[in-house]
Amino acid sequence: MRPLLCTLLALAATLAPAAAARADDVVGYALVVGSNRPGPGQAALAFAEDDAREVAEVLRDLGGFPAARVQVVLNPSAKALGAALDKLERAVAADVVAGRAPRVFFYYSGHAKASGLSLGPDEYALETLRARLFATRAALTVVVLDACQSGAFSRIKGAEPAADFSYNSRARLDASGVAVLASSTGSELSQESDFLRSSYFTHNLLVGLRGAADDNHDGQVSLDEAYRYTYHQTLVATAATAVGSQHVSVEVDLKGAGEIPLAFPERATAALTLPADAEGQVLVVKAPARAVVAELQKAKGAALQVAVAPGRYQVLMRTAARVVRCDATAGPGAPPIDLARCAVDAPLASATKGAGAVDGPAWLMSVALGIGGGRADAYTERLEEFGYHKQLGVGTRLGVDALRRVHPAVLVGGQAVLYGGDEWRRDTDLEPLTIRWNTGVVGALGRVEQHLGPVAAFAQLGAGLAITGTTFVDQAGVATDEVHAGPAASGALGLDWIIGAGVGVTGRFDASYAPSLPNLLGDRHDTGQLGLSIGVVVAR
Amino acid sequence: MRHLPTLLLLAGVAVTSGGATDCGQVIDDRGFDLWCGDRLCRWSLEKGQIAPAPTWHAGDHGVELVGADVAISQLTEVASTDGRCVGFDLVADVAADAEVHLLVDVYGDGTIERDERIPTSAWRPVAFRLRMPEFYQGVRFRLTKTGGHAVLANIGAAIADDAECVGPTLEAGLRPDGVTCGEDAECASGDCVPGPLGSACGECTTDADCAGGDVCGIVSYAEASRGLWAACVAPASTATGLACVRDAQCATGICAGGYCSACRDDSTCGGGACAPIHYVVDHADRDPTDIAGALHCTGGPLVASGGACLADGDCASGACVGDALAMCTTSFFPRACTTDMECPGYAFGGEPACVNVGTRGGTCQ
User: Lowest-confidence range among A196-200, A321-325, A345-349?
Assistant: First the structure.
């Protein structure tokens, strides 16, 4: 399960090119804040500060914000954040006095509570943040919050929630005012992804700003385009996670009319262009670091330009039938990717990573205890023929599974299982003849799973070696021990329910096959069982 | 039917007439588990050799019939009062060149009432269902083999449900001596000799029935399924300590208390007392058994050399010479024995049943 990003994503304000103002009069300021530090009772975040750096980079490269006017504040205290807001306020005020129309973009990624931003041990009150941002004299303020329940921030006076993601800013030319884009609704959690090394929301926002959200192919990504793209992609990516769906929300209080451009991918000095024929889930990976730059869905029909930093990339395009792997270089004048020069991997039967993709914990370990029944076969029939009677009606099972995730829905690992076996007895005039056995199995294990909120339904198969130890007691009471070996196979269907802190319970129906106990007459007993087990599962 | 009032002790000869099974099981040591050295403790080796052989597990033995001609048998005490249907089961490993038979001898009198061949088998179960005669008392099961390899295991004979026995009924002949009877016509001897607790087939009721100067006395069969019965015996041939009904059959000329004894009353003990010898048998799960046997002189002058004795203590020399006298502790009537298997009920009791009590037909040195 991915770590939660319980952060409040603040707002980014961008001052749209108000139609009433001349282009030369428009200036933009960005305050980008990232904090991995947890507040009391919270876990540290992994990628909030990285996300802030990425956002600042995109604003500088594609958003039209001069580097000198982009403040990046990482891991700040409440006092440091207040100082950054002071600086922003002073700059905006000076521009207003000079007759310009300043725009403000505020971005926050980190922990938050209902009462404020969690900045390590400090808390910066939301009311204060809201008042400070809205008190600037900027013509347009865009606030982007990537935090848990960040939708709760945008309870701004006069703001109206968009009816749905189809909010269209084109109807409002010469827009001015406030727009708030939040990573989740007021009651949801925001999530990070180990695979993306980012939060789902910020990753999709950045991919959209790099060009993937440019629906009308006008070379710009507007607020509503960014919102629609981020809304869809974040919802799809989080639909099958253990935490659950995450809905990006937007609220606006705008006057006038006109689009609110957030990024200008056409102005990028370097870009990757996916040709019109490209389709499927696209993964753009920076080489050689193999960092995921973008993960997006592309349909056939139109080329798509994704603005990136100059350099070498690997682009993977995956459909249900194949994986196309392309090496590409982004730089000035770079041509579109030539699919004919890309490698095509073997068809993937289960490599889809779209709506059903799951990105669960990297490791799972479970310990389960169960009961089951042994099998009747030629070996036990032979025992009956020789006058033996079964003494124990129910067998026991104790198993340990350790699994590592190799695919969002596939885990591989190993297992060790101890089966408490049967005891058979034949009475004699002296001591009864008795044979009893126990079997231990070690082997490899593979699992596929489907997450349903905090519950994962799974099916798994295992194969390995079974070792059966027997004790035979003769009529004189003398015990003789023997050890036998044989192959083993197992299968299970079950549910893992992660309750909290990576710990949960597991329940499963087990079936195992272990023909590891021979007799002198050529029969071989399957010491496996059919049974039910319950236990504890730990996810990391 | 003639009556022999003097043979009161014969009345209940048939201690086995009530049948004897262990929860329906007929065969003793069904798994061939009890080996006394190189022989089976509970089975009689009639010919050839046997050896333990591993079966499904090295620790669970069957019996291999070693050699070209082998026979083992067990005389069981099963009787018609136990049931009419006897199931006989075993697991067999019989080679194609071996011929193995199950022979059923009702009464154990040597007459084979059923001969079943055990088929060639590789450790598969074999079962027979025997519909027994309306009356039977004791069955000897005999297993014979000629030819090649044969190992038998988990032999069991048990009373089965009557519905399982669909074959023909075994035809048993007239009853041999010692078997319970109701009328003379049932007995091979033609004599059903009654007693207060029942009647048993016998040879005679009076000396007149005997030839060659023999007297009509009492004998016991060597195995447990039959009891005592009236038989013609040579005069003065029954040793001291054994059962008797007439003075004439005893070597001492004294039949007292049902035993050939050394004295009849105190008058012949020179001031001592004529009293029964006692043998006390301890049991694991019940009170000791105190059995009164033959009479001998105690408390008086010791017996001089040449006199009859039952124990060394009877003699002035301190030595009573003769064969060991062993008696069944499980028998309701005095019954001499040489092994436990000869004693009724021993098969299911497990305790020693044939105990040494003195000297049979002893003479003081």
Answer: A345-349
Which ipTM value was assigned to this complex? 0.71
pLDDT at A439: 93
Q: Is B31 an interface residue toward A (CB < 8 Å)?
A: yes
Q: Count up the domains in chain A and report the number.
A: 3
CB atoms A429 and B28 under 8 Å: yes
The 3-class SS string of chain B reads: CCCCCCCHHHHHCCCCCCCCCECCECCCCCCCCCEECCEECCCEEEEEEEEEEECCCCCCEEEEEEEEEEEEEEEEEEECCCCCEEEEEEEEEECCCEEEEEEEEECCCCCCCEEEEECCEEEEEEEEEEECCCCCEEEEEEEEEEECCEEEEEEEEEECCHHHCCCCECCCCCECCCCECCCHHHECCCEEEEECCEEEEECCCCHHHCCCCCEEEEEECCCCCCCEEEEEECCCCECCCCECCCHHHECCCCEECCEECCCCCHHHCCCCEEEEEEEEECCCCCCCEEEEEEEEEECCCCECCCCEECCHHHECCCCEEEEEEEEECCCCCCCECCCHHHCCCHHHHCCCCEEEEEEEEEEEC
Are both A244 and A381 inside the same structural domain? no
Q: Point out the residue among B28, B31, B56 whose CB comes nearest to the CB of A520.
A: B56
How many CB atoms are closer than 10 A to CB B350? Answer: 12
Q: Is residue A520 part of a domain?
A: yes
Question: Choosing among B123, B124, B154, which should be mutated to test the A contact, i.e. which has the most A CBs within 10 A?
Answer: B123
A175-189, A368-382, A388-402, B283-297: segment of lowest average pLDDT:
A175-189
CA A47-A52-A56 angle, 5° bins: 145
Q: What is the per-residue burial (b if ≥16 Cβ within 10 Å, else e) of B210-234?
A: beeebbbbbbbbebbbbbbbbbbbe
Asked if A311 and A368 sit in the same domain, the reply is no
Answer whether A430 sits within 8 Å of B29, measured CB to CB: no
**In angstroms, what separates the C-alpha of A408 from chain B's closest C-alpha?**
50
Mean pLDDT score of chain A: 79
Is B348 in the A-facing interface, judged by CB distances under 8 Å?
A: no
Q: Are residues A272 and A250 in the same domain?
A: no
Contacts of A480 in chain B (CB under 8 A): 58-59
CB contact under 8 A, B34 and A429: yes
pTM equals 0.54
Residue of A nearest to B58 (CA): A520
Which residue ranges make up each domain of chain B? 1-13+180-235, 35-164, 265-365
Please state whether the peptide bond connecting residue A288 to the residue before it is cis, i.e. omega within 30 degrees of 0: yes
> What would the pLDDT profile of A113-143 be if each residue is shown by its tens digit?
767 788 888 988 878 888 888 888 888 888 8
**pLDDT (tens digit per residue) in A476-507:** 889 999 999 999 999 999 999 888 777 889 99
Q: Mind telling me how many Å the CA of B168 is from chain A's nearest CA?
A: 26
For A71-94, write each residue's pLDDT tens digit: 999 999 999 999 999 999 998 888
Flag if B55 and A480 touch (Cβ within 8 Å).
Answer: no
The answer, yes or no, to whether residue A12 has pLDDT greater than 80, is no
Q: What is the pLDDT of residue B4?
A: 36
Highest-pLDDT range among A340-349, B306-315, B325-334: B306-315
Question: Which of these three, A247, A266, A285, is where a domain ends?
Answer: A266
Q: Do B30 and A387 touch (CB under 8 A)?
A: yes
Using a CB-CB distance cutoff of 8 angstroms, which residues of chain B are in contact with residue A519?
56-57
Q: What percent of chain A has pLDDT over 70?
A: 81
Domain B35-164 -> CATH class: mainly beta
Out of B33, B58, B154, whose CB is closest to A429?
B33
Judge whether A236 and A355 are in contact, CB under 8 Å.
yes
Q: Which residue of A has its CA nearest to B347?
A: A429
